[in-house]
Specification:
- It is a single chain.
- By secondary structure, the chain is an alpha+beta fold.
- It has a four-stranded mixed sheet with strand order 3-2-1-4, covered by helices on one side.
Length: 75
């Protein structure tokens, strides 16, 4: 099954949200919590979506940011 990955990661201007297959950021938030809320909202609209969040640009995914369904990380 192919998943749509919604990613949250640190940018120069805050926390960027992007989606697999798209080259540009969908949104940038000053608050990490706002970025996660937006990413979860995007993922909730598609049962084949997962959310990946990174606490730093080079950091690993954080366990507190699980996907709505299925609970998995994208690479």
């Amino acid at each position: 099954m192919n998943f749509t990955c919604v990613k949250v990661q640190r940018t120069d201007n805050g926390w960027g949200v992007t989606q697999s297959g798209l080259a540009e950021l969908l949104a940038v938030y000053a608050s990490w919590e706002d970025a996660i809320d937006y990413a979860r909202g995007l993922a909730a609209g598609n049962a084949a979506s997962i959310v990946e969040a990174r606490t730093t640009r080079a950091g690993s995914p954080c366990g507190s940011c699980s996907a709505p369904t299925p609970a998995a990380w994208c690479t």
